[in-house]
Amino acid sequence: VTAEKAGFDHFMLKEIYDQPKAYRDTMGSRIAPDGKRVTLNELTITPEAIRNISRVHIVACGTAFHAGMVGKYVIEKMARIPVETDVASEYRYRSPIITKDTLVIVVSQSGETADTLAALREAKRCGAHVLAITNVVGSSVAREANDIITTWAGPEIAVASTKAYTSQLIGFYLLGLHLAQTLGTQTPEEIAEVIAAMKELPAQVSEILEQAEALKVVAEEMAKHDNLFFIGRGLDYAVALEGSLKLKEISYIHSEAYAAGELKHGTLALIEDDIPVIALATQHELLEKTVSNIKEVKARGAKVLGIAVEGETELQKSVDSTFIIPKTLDVLTPALSVIPLQLLSYYASLARGNDVDKPRNLAKSVTVE
Ligand code: AGP
User: Fold this and answer.
1) How far, in whole angstroms, is CA 307 from its chain's centroid?
2) pLDDT value at 3 more than 80
């Protein structure tokens, strides 16, 4: 088992460090050599069928659902098709409107999650085209879907999903670009710009991983608290949800993720002296608004760690400490900003003496509904 961990203390840490390779492998040959187009040759859905898509449903559980929240944003922005996201255990029971023109995207690392599989079957029964983003070739989800985008993250052993999530993000970026190319909703220049920035991501993840020691110190402080908050707007909110789930799952510290603008509608009542707040502020258009939400928690005594993009100076004035991620396009930031959150969870779990790879009460693959 030690050998499989490649010298790392835990599978989770190894899998966090596998991410630059997982990004490269998942992009792989799906980017044309000239960097101007994506080539998702594995898809069977025709350009005509893509032009007929009236709506997209993204259905998944847990971390895969959080990747789907990013996917919604990416597809709506790049392809201008309306997207709804559903937790798989809720999907079937709300009588979703599924037609032949609906593209249903199911996201699952294992490809065996019972609720996700049931959602897939219901979507197929209603005549939708089902596309799966999954990490396990030959899994039930992969076998039953009409189309598959395989994430090449390699086996994920730790219960807490890390490299599967980020590879799912890469899958959504590729799909968003593919839809945009087909529909003409992005110019060739815009597409080339996103691809060029995507190619930078693996090296940028490595840069973040070099800061692990600094995050360990922050995590050890966090581990002394019983409650904390993650806040963010837009894509940062989706990443906040994932950061909060990861922390709860392995450190057992209670945390909540809030859309930063929603705090004042109730949650602000929970902010008291010294409570740690992790504020993601990577979206340029939303920065000013996020900063004013940070001021709201600071005024109530919170200790704020900001996650910001290189070159951002405004945020640093309003937080207690900052973790800087390398510069990328706003739409791609989740693929970088989640990395420090993964490391914070890992080190907080370690500081609390928990079984990092096998947290209590949880299974890697949830095959019951
Ligand atoms: C992630 O850290 C969790 N262990 C969990 O939320 C997981 O993502 C969820 O159970 C879905 O699993 P799947 O991707 O294999 O379908």
Assistant:
1) 15
2) no
Task: Classify 96 as helix, strand or coil.
Answer: coil
Q: Which helix (H) or strand (E) holds 298?
A: helix 287-298
Structure confidence by residue, pLDDT tens digits, 211-270: 999 999 999 999 999 999 999 999 999 999 999 999 999 999 999 999 999 999 999 999
Mean per-residue pLDDT of the chain: 96
Does residue 119 have a pLDDT over 60? yes
* Pocket residue to mutate for ligand 1, from 15, 137, 366, most atoms within 8 A of Cβ: 366
The finding on whether 64 has its CB within 6 A of some atom of ligand 1 is yes
Q: Which amino acid is at 353?
A: G
Exactly one of 21, 289, 298, 364 is catalytic; name it.
Answer: 364
pLDDT digits (tens, 9 = 90+) for 284-300: 999 999 999 999 999 99
Say how many CA atoms lie within 13 Å of 123 toward its Cβ: 30
CB of 109 shorter than 6 A to ligand 1 = yes
d(CA 7, CA 9): 7
User: pLDDT digits over 328-344, tens only?
Assistant: 999 999 999 999 999 99
Taking the C-alpha atoms of residue 337 and residue 31, their distance in angstroms, rounded to an integer, is 23
ipTM: 0.98
DSSP assignment string, 259-285: EGGGGGGTGGGG--TT-EEEEEE--GG
- Is the C-beta atom of 108 inside 6 A of ligand 1? yes
85 - beta bridge partners?
Answer: 58
**DSSP of 341-361, one letter per residue?**
HHHHHHHHHHHTT--SSS-TT
* Three-state DSSP state, 215: helix
